[in-house]
Amino acid sequence: MSPNAPPVLDFSVFYGNDTAAKAKLIDQLRECCHYNGFFQITGHRVPRELQQRVMGCARRFFDLPLEEKLLIDKNRNSFNRGYELLRSQMLEVGTGPELKEGLYIGEEIPEDHPYFLQKKLNSGPNQWPPTVPDKDEFEQTSMEYYHAVFDLAKNVLGALALTLNVSESYFDPLTDGAVATMRYLHYPAQPKDAEEKLNRGIGAHTDFGCITLLLQDEVDGLQVLDAPTGEWLDVEPVPGAYVVNLGNLFMRMANDRYKSNIHRVINKSGQERYSIPFFFSGNPDYLCECLPHCRQPGEGPKYPPITVEQMVTASYKESYGRAEKYKQEIKAKMEVVATRYTLITLGGPSLAFTLIRSFVFTLSETPRYSLSKGRDQAAVDAVKHVARQNGKPEPLTLSMFQDIDNGLDIPSTTLSALLTTEILRGNMEDFTGSHYRALVGTRSLTRNTFLIWGFWLTIGIAYPLYFNSLPSYLATKFSSSGSLDTTYRNYCIESAVGVSGPLSAAYLVTTFFGRRWMMGLSAIVTGVFLFAYAGVSDAAALLAFARVTRMLGDFDTLSK
Ligand SMILES: O=C(O)CCC(=O)C(=O)O
Ligand SMILES: [Fe+2]
Q1: Tell me, what CATH number does 123's domain have?
Q2: Looking at ligand 1, which atom is closest to the CA of residue 243?
Q3: The pTM is what?
């Protein structure tokens, strides 16, 4: 064992009459508290046989199938009792959720107990596993052990009082009615090649409460940070010993003179590891103030008074919140991957169909477009082509168009392409008053007109609601990273950029490419972008790609 590793001290002298030996123990404890707040004790009064029995309980519980352990899921109550799933907690920033599962047990607080009624810290009935073998023995051993370690914690606090040169009973107001939690912990054997940083049994942390008494099995993994050297020291398991460490609450009361030290667990042993920490918080209403002899004359306390309950609750919130946030981030990343796969699945076939449509099948320009360009023969050919494809007679001929032109007395010069202004004028003629009057010409026409307008109005409202509100609702409901503002900002940008799609399409179809090639080209570019979209990894690039594909989509629609 490295010389700085927490020393193993014989606590039995605390109970004996050898004052010199007791004074020496107190000095050693004081030194440990100043150094890093960690030490191990043997010679306490918790029987070895009870320790072995309780370790057996821990193993028995964790051997249960997951669904049976989940019957007493800790998330079902607010008083910190029950089963905690693997990877629920995350104490160290920058690591993954922790590779440990736990069972939280505390004093049996029935629902008519004042602590339960007043919703005091971690106070409520225990959640016992209904299917654990030897259930009665399980509950009885767990509580017997809890009370034995509770008493030991009081003794250790008595000894710590002596290190501060106050009476052994100094902490009685803290220990009377104290709340404590013990955890059965199981660290599954970590895969050999697992990345250490992401596979902590417990990430580097300090304990929240007053003091912790930890029973380890024979598998090592606990390490304490040696502040002066920055080295991680192994806290080797000593059969029957308790690893005692001070928590943040004690350090605060001691005005930082005594240390609550950083520690962690990495189970590299290749074996299952079990441990049972006992976290002694104290009476929830106890006001933690600066302890005597923890400041120089004239020196003020570093921290204002705080109750045990306030302090411990805040620490819990912080560490569980971190694990939750991490999981949300992973979820968001998974969503990006899922989007990629969706786009590849959709973009691939659409690109293939575009290529087939452009190069395998002969696609004619639409007759209406050809006519507007004065290409009557092309219009006739297109209609014939469609008829032929469908095995129908081909009734349309060029002379039919010429007859119509002659009948309308249109001079042959206008058979050439129409000017854009002429097309526009022609289109505007549709908007004369007589056309609108016809819409309400009879009762049934009026009814039908208003019904149709009503339908389109509803569709017009439903469309943006569906495309904008639903995704934004989903984005904010299921992802912590997306905010409503961001989602709407993105839609505004997308829609504004999208306007350029129809405008450029309106111009480009009048150029040399015509409608057919512009449609084909835009479909190809859309397909290429959909593929490229799939490779995007950050939010800004995703937004940019969404805008371009939306613009191309509008382009495509208008060209049709
Ligand atoms: O399991 C261990 O050895 C340490 C547990 C611990 O540090 C904790 O639960 O806070
Ligand atoms: Fe700890």
Answers
A1: 2.60.120.330
A2: 3
A3: 0.62
Structural domain that includes position 35: 8-283+300-329
Asked whether the CA dihedral 222, 325, 338, 541 is positive or negative, the reply is negative
User: What is the CA(246)–ligand 2 centre distance, in A?
Assistant: 10
d(CA 468, CA 473): 9
In this predicted structure, the answer to whether residue 559 has a pLDDT above a threshold of 90 is no
In a domain, 318, yes or no: yes
Contacts of 242 (CB under 8 A, 6+ apart): 40, 41, 44, 46, 149, 152, 213, 214, 215
Instruction: Tell whether 177 is covered by a domain.
Output: yes
Of 368, 387, 356, 343, the closest CA to residue 548 belongs to 343
How many Å separate Cα 391 from the centre of its chain? Answer: 59
Of the given ranges (116-130, 295-309, 401-415), which has the lowest mean pLDDT? 401-415
Domain count, the chain: 1
> Does a structural domain hold residue 104?
yes
Residue 88 lies in a domain: yes
Of all atoms in ligand 1, which is nearest to the CA of residue 185? 1
Residues having CB within 6 Å of any atom of ligand 1: 183, 185, 202, 207, 214, 216, 222, 263, 265, 275, 277
